[in-house]
Design a protein that fits this description.
Layout lengths: L10 H12 L4 H8 L3 H10 L17 H12 L4 H8 L3 H10 L2 H4 L2 H11 L7 H4 L1 H12 L4 H11 L10 H9 L57 E8 L5 E7 L5 E5 L5 H12 L9 E4 L8 H8 L2 E4 L9 H10 L14 H12 L11 H12 L1
Parallel strand pairs: 1-4, 4-5
Antiparallel strand pairs: 1-2, 2-3
Helix pairs in contact: 1-2, 2-3, 4-5, 4-8, 5-6, 11-12, 13-14
């Protein structure tokens, strides 16, 4: 059922990913630009806590590839270590260690030595918090008291004016929290940050011009016709997203009258992906089966007008933080957790897989329907329309 072996991102794609993330693009937008699922993008970003890794560069003190070539040529010419060192302008001890570190005079190869050194430089370097237990403990204590990293950093400068070992920048604290590979501060301390977010964006990032959180011209559920409240009238649906790991999502549509459910595969949580997927699915329904759709205030339906124009289905929005106003959908999402437990990567389910799971629910007798199945109830309502 789940897809395996999804190809990873190349070095150039990762560079573009972080550039787009820093500029405020959503995971779904980045995924579309790189031809990858949003879950793949989420995996890369979340592993670094939303903080772009520093660009790797060689130390100015390190031997260059050209110098290693000279060492290799010197060995081939049977030159001494001192002669080679004079030619490249390095200390004899530097040349001696370089040769010994990479197989000795008999096995030394410039290209192998250069690539090995580059790979070994990937080893993570300990930050100041990792090297100072007292400072680490003090920072953790203040975080647990809901102090912000910036407050902690400023307070440390006042508290220890003459001890630089007891100072740390707020950026280092953030990095130690969000990049758990450092193993310095416990992940649980993130819950004490005011923002509560699990990933961080840099100062230069922006979401200007993006329609996040904006439901323009939303029609409130309070303006929905009274007949919708009467489940005896068919044609009215409720919708929502259920979420899984790696930023994966599935759209759920439930008919209020029959409890018939449709599951919709979506490529991302952004409004363009969700609306296009819903339009594709709804257009497959017989005419008149869906006349209205009620959703929550999630920004995934920011482009609700496009949905209405394409499907001729009226869209209504619940009040903020009022899931009970879509009680049928909430109950169905609970039933679906039998098939999609929390933490499941939903990106591995294709539309055919989702149709199979929806079929199981639609052919299951429901007590609220007098033990009739949603499928049979829907068929009867369709017959009435036609």
């Amino acid at each position: 059922m789940a897809q395996m072996g999804r190809p990873g991102l190349s070095a150039s794609q990762k560079t573009e990913l972080w550039h787009r993330w820093k500029n405020g693009q959503s995971l779904s937008d980045i995924g579309r630009a790189l031809g990858k699922h949003a879950g793949s993008i989420h995996g890369v970003v979340s592993s670094n806590g939303g903080i772009a890794p520093a660009a790797r560069r060689r130390s100015r003190l390190a031997l260059t590839f050209a110098e290693r070539e000279e060492i290799s040529r010197g060995i081939a010419a049977s030159s001494s270590v001192r002669q080679i060192a004079i030619k490249i302008g390095r200390a004899p001890s530097t040349v001696s260690r370089e040769i010994a570190r990479h197989g000795g005079r008999d096995k030394y190869r410039a290209s192998d030595a250069d690539s090995q050194t580059w790979d070994q430089s990937r080893r993570p370097k300990q930050c100041r918090l990792g090297m100072n237990d007292s400072l680490q403990s003090l920072v953790a204590t203040k975080l647990s008291l809901d102090w912000s990293p910036e407050q902690i950093s400023g307070w440390l400068r006042l508290r220890f004016p003459d001890d630089k070992s007891m100072r740390v920048s707020h950026e280092t604290i953030y990095r130690s929290l969000f990049i758990q590979a450092r193993g310095v501060l416990k992940k649980e301390l993130i819950s004490h940050l005011r923002s509560k977010r699990m990933m961080r964006r840099g100062k230069a990032s922006t979401t200007e011009g993006q329609p996040r959180g904006q439901i323009i011209d939303a029609i409130s559920i309070r303006e929905r016709p009274a007949e919708v409240e009467d489940r005896a009238v068919p044609g009215h649906w409720e919708g929502d997203l259920i979420s899984g790991s790696k930023n994966s999502h599935i759209a759920t549509l439930v008919k209020r009258h029959s409890r018939f459910v449709m599951l919709v595969q979506i490529d991302g949580k952004d409004t363009a992906s969700v609306v296009s997927a819903l339009v594709r699915q709804v257009k497959q329904l017989p005419f008149g089966v869906m006349s209205s759709l009620t959703w929550d205030r999630g920004s995934e339906l920011a482009q609700h007008k496009k949905f209405t124009v394409a499907t001729d289905v009226d869209m209504y929005f619940c009040d903020p933080r009022s899931p009970w106003q879509r009680g049928t959908n909430e109950n169905t999402n609970g039933l679906l957790r039998q098939y999609f437990p929390k933490g499941t990567d939903l990106s591995g389910y294709g539309q055919q897989d989702l149709d199979t799971i929806a079929l199981r629910l639609n052919t299951r007798p429901r007590k609220t329907l007098g033990y009739m199945t949603p499928g049979v109830r829907l068929a009867k309502s369709v017959a009435m329309i036609s």
